Amino acid sequence: MARKQGNVSQKRFIPVHILLILGGLFMVFPFIYQILMSLSTNPEIQSVPPKFIPDSWQWHNYSDVFTRLPFLHQFWVSVEITVLRTGVQLLLCAMAGYAFARMQFKGRGLLFGLLLAILMVPGQSYLIGQYQVIQNFGLLETPWGIVLPGFFSAFGVFLMRQAFMSLPVELEEAARLDGCNPWQAFWRVMFPLVRPSLFAVMITTVLWSWNDLLWPLIVTTREESMPLSVGIATLAGQHSTDYALMMAASTMAMAPIFILFFSMQKRVIEGLATSGLKG
Amino acid sequence: MSEAGARGAMSAPRPGSASPKGRRRRGSPTSVGAWPLAFIGLLMLGVAVFYYWPIVKNIIISFQQTNAFGGDPEFVGVDNYKALFADPSLMSSIGNTLLYTVIVLLGIPLSVAIASMIELPGLRWKSLYRTLFFMPYLAMPMAIGQVWKIVYNGNFGILNQVLRALGVSDPPYWIVTPGFAIVAVSIFGLWSSIGFNVIILSSGLKGISRELYEAASIDGATGVKQFRWITVPLLTPSIFFLTIMTTIGGFQLFDVLFAMIGNGNPAESRTRSLVTLFYKQAFVNSDQGTGAAIAIVILVFVAIVTVIQFIGQKKWVNYV
């Protein structure tokens, strides 16, 4: 019966549905168009009037990306920097967040304040200095050069500190009584309990790391050391008229993020909402 | 389970979470020895090396003339700043950055409309709609920007084909026409930003108690009135948060611009943002002194606007 009522009431939502479907189509149209173009020929893409459905599907555009471009190289750089950055950042932020939330030590407030100050400064004000540091370390053109500054996230520490503060102290005290040292109390007892916040930090880091452009653009100049976000940019310069190839490459550059996020859709949206509310 | 967990985390900053018990026992095991250092040491070292020091360094460099071919930099006082302010490209970059920011800010009222439609109680397909509007936020700007470039293409782009079909005989060649290009880029930026807005606003809307609406409808307040007097006021903290984030994000305009405006584009000099100008000076022209000065200008710019917004919020943001 409840279901029937639901059906009846959908009728008064018809205008809302129409608006949302139109808006939604506007949002996804570029993606659909991209995939259709990636399976077309160049003349089809440039035809007037537009031809959305290709005469025959050009699947070879996708394999051409691997033979004609350094795609695989750049794909692995992207995977490498995203995994490294996310893993190390989660651990460092959780550890620091735990210390700031649960340990008493001298200068805690001051250090935490100094850390949060970074969030208020736009990225450009440390970019030149970071570049010099990476240069002095001899890490230009390397994945380490791309990820190293991203290991340390004030935002991540802030989020993790909030998460640890919301956990009951009794848990930790019980762990202590059972003979855990602070590391064991953190790693075995507390760390698994802040999973939702870890997830929120993970989402933002993965997304930011995979799509980040300016910093890797500065640190890498050679095609084989670039991640995809930069690789696509150079591609656009060199193969600007081979639209079909570009579309196949850019589809594949975005695919991992979409696959990852759609497989955990509900948690991603919640996680982002959480991280947003913290800002 | 994750939902409950996320809520728990969200309520973290509420009072009562700071534990008086932890403080009661002085010299409890947590406070002894080098443990805190072990937990924060590496992070603070990294932050010092990759954030504090670079900021200090940037301030120093902004007063120096650096030599692209090596050799010691020379102290030149405020010369970099003087040269910067004498250069008309600074003002046009500020203009472009502001125009972009204003257009992307228009996405907030649009997102309020979208989110409040999606969250209407009883509406079907909510999660489908959320997903549709959310997708652009996930997309790599560089990659999806290539699609937008084709949409905006003067000859075969769909936009102009539609315009011609509607009777516009001579539509502009969007991203290569100075004046139109920055607007075209901004619309792409607007499209990219709506997904995040909708998520934040949706979770804000879910936090509004249903009882308020029930009470209002007993008093005879209909849909539009409820929206005006309940939804909007209770959503102002989320709207304020988005305003700050969008403004700061707008001042960082780089990715979507870089994705659309390539080298050799005749509109290039007319589409430069503050960050593009910074990138060009510091890393393309290797003029780090001027680049550093631009970074300081951006810093001051962001600081001023953020302070103004925080002062202004008292007039319109309602905290429960």
TrEMBL record, chain B:
Domain of life of the organism encoding this protein: Bacteria
Gene Ontology biological process terms, A to Z: transmembrane transport
Compartments where located: Cell membrane
Topology versus the membrane: Multi-pass membrane protein
Keyword field: Cell membrane, Membrane, Transmembrane, Transmembrane helix, Transport
Entry keyword Membrane: yes
Cellular component terms (Gene Ontology): plasma membrane
Record-linked PROSITE patterns: ABC_TM1
InterPro entries the UniProt entry points to: ABC_transporter_permease, MetI-like, MetI-like_sf
Domain ABC transmembrane type-1, first and last residues per copy: 93-309
Principal localisation: membrane
Membrane-spanning parts: 32-53, 98-120, 132-152, 172-200, 234-254, 292-312
Pfam families cross-referenced by the UniProt entry: BPD_transp_1 (PF00528)
Record region (Disordered): 1-29
Family assignment from sequence similarity: Belongs to the binding-protein-dependent transport system permease family.
Identification of the protein by name: L-arabinose transport system permease protein AraP
Source species of the chain: Acidipropionibacterium virtanenii
